[in-house]
Write a structure and sequence with these properties.
Largest sheet: 6 strands, parallel
CATH class of the largest domain: Alpha Beta
Number of domains: 3
CATH topology of the largest domain: Rossmann fold
CATH architecture of the largest domain: 3-Layer(aba) Sandwich
Strand content: 15-25%
Radius of gyration: 25 Å
């Protein structure tokens, strides 16, 4: 059996739930060590290291001269993308752009009667780096990753946006990726994958400029590299395997549930597809649908492994318990395939994205609905949010005191400074009181 359904409250059910709740994972020591060495080499040797790694793992013919995608390649890419796909890309750009425009923050000021002015100045970072995975050697170009990561940076006003992606064995970058990038104004594109691509963005090389923010998905080496450079640059998040939690009642259609579980399972053998249901008969129906739909998938082996090794179906006593568990699990994607899903929104506290109703598959959010699909995983939705315009913004405080204001606040400021043993702080106020 692909998945053995369990009841919550039983020993078996509690064991399954405990494993799900304890799913946060970091890269193993071997991966972390390898990535640290790669980063050190790229930081020290620049383009030479990029080419060396690229030749070994991606394209044997890679050279320093062809690290950057040329203008001719960018123009030629449009000749290789059919009109219907181009139309879909353009439509997705419009949807994603319109949604993220609402996220833009404004600078603001507060004034007080004594002449004090305080506020916050919102400014974009100067540069951002977008990492786009190769997508099965370029055969499955991750166009949505380009759009979801690049559009918020553009709306934020980032002046320089750089994209890195591993080339195919022939040295080419998918024309679909090149077209998607150009549709959102990105033309600085480089052939650099995995941890060395991240290192190049963080430290800069002779060809690739150093950036302030690095975003984009990837395997454990990419995730570990982002973790190791975090602090000297901002990153979007450290993402784990993709995951979905479906809450379903007796009215849910088993074929829909199976299809949505498979949509997660086909990502990766480590992907997590979970079902919580109030109907004891539903799991068997969904299992039958899974067996029916699995042979139709090109990635059947991956999906089957994911379901067998990590999938779970749990029967709960009522919807209230299901929502409580959903908050505890804090899944990347939460589907509410129940009657009146909107009624449960006030009770949802932790989820990367919420999909409401029988007609809202998670795939709609991945590609076209508008909200970002870069979401917190591994339970980090308890404190983290989706990627958005704010990822590329920074805030500067504004403070301006009048003479009257500093006189009014001086005693309190100096008292607190002396309490902390910082006499010079106090004196910097006191000297102003005694000098015009």
């Amino acid at each position: 059996m692909l998945i053995t359904p369990v009841k919550l409250g039983t020993d078996e059910g509690n064991a399954v739930l405990e494993k799900i709740l304890d799913r946060f994972q970091l890269a193993d020591a071997d991966c972390a060590g390898s990535v640290a060495k790669i980063i050190k080499n790229v930081a020290g040797q620049g383009d030479e290291a990029l080419v060396d790694y690229g030749r070994r793992f991606d394209c044997p013919g890679l050279t320093v001269e062809n690290l950057q995608v040329t203008g001719e390649e960018l123009r030629a890419a449009y000749n290789e993308v059919d009109e219907k796909t181009l139309g879909s890309i353009k439509a997705a750009v419009e949807r994603i752009w319109n949604f993220h425009e609402r996220e833009m923050e404004d600078s603001w000021l507060q004034t007080r009667d004594d002449g004090t002015v305080v506020g916050r100045l919102v400014r974009p970072v100067d540069s951002a780096g977008l990492y786009v995975p190769g997508g099965t050697g370029g055969s499955t170009p991750l166009v949505s990753s380009v759009l979801m990561n690049g559009i918020p940076a553009s709306i934020a006003g980032v002046r320089r946006r750089v994209m890195v992606t591993p080339p195919g064995r022939d040295g080419k970058v998918s024309p679909f990726l090149l077209v998607a990038a150009q549709e959102i104004g990105i033309s600085d594109i480089y052939r650099a994958g995995s941890a060395w691509g991240i290192a190049a963005l963080a430290y800069g090389t002779e060809s690739i400029p150093k950036v302030d923010v690095i975003v984009g998905p990837g395997n454990q080496f990419v995730a570990e590299a982002k973790k190791q450079v975090s602090g000297m640059v901002r990153i979007d998040m450290i993402a784990g395997p993709s995951e979905v939690l479906i809450v379903a009642d007796a009215n849910a259609v088993p074929a829909h549930l199976a299809a949505d579980m498979l949509a997660q399972a086909e990502h990766d053998p480590q992907a997590l597809a979970l079902l919580l249901t109030t109907d004891e008969t539903l799991p068997e129906k969904v299992l039958a649908e899974l067996e029916k739909q699995l042979p139709l998938l090109s990635r059947e082996k991956i999906a089957r492994t994911s379901l067998t090794e990590r999938g779970a179906m749990m029967i709960v006593k009522d919807l209230e318990e299901a929502i409580r568990l959903a908050n505890d699990i804090a899944s990347e994607h939460l589907e509410l395939d129940i009657v009146n899903p909107w009624e449960q929104i006030p009770f949802i506290r932790h989820a990367g994205a919420i999909f409401l109703g029988a007609n809202t598959p998670e795939a709609a959010g991945d590609y076209f609905a508008g909200p970002n699909h870069v979401l917190p995983t591994m339970g980090t939705a308890r404190f983290a949010s989706s990627l958005g315009v704010e990822t590329f913004l920074k805030k500067c405080s504004i403070i301006s005191y009048s003479r009257q204001a500093i006189e009014n606040d001086a005693e309190d400021i100096m008292r607190l400074a002396h309490l902390e043993g910082l006499d010079a702080h106090a004196n910097s106020v006191n000297v102003r009181l005694n000098h015009d």
